[in-house]
Amino acid sequence: MRRLNHTPERFPLADEDDTFPYPLREMLYGLGRKKTHRVLFVVRPNAVVIYAIRHVAQEQFNPYP
Q: How many folded domains does the chain comprise?
């Protein structure tokens, strides 16, 4: 997750972006070549706010359960 400190805007918008009030981005990560988890985050002027870390097999993130 250190990669989020440098140019977090380079990560794509998440599928859930249209249901979220801010541009929601995602970073995929895992061990080796297989990506097993998603970090869902928002880029603010002075911070990166992580909203969820989810397994890729989980349903989409719902900020309003």
A: 1
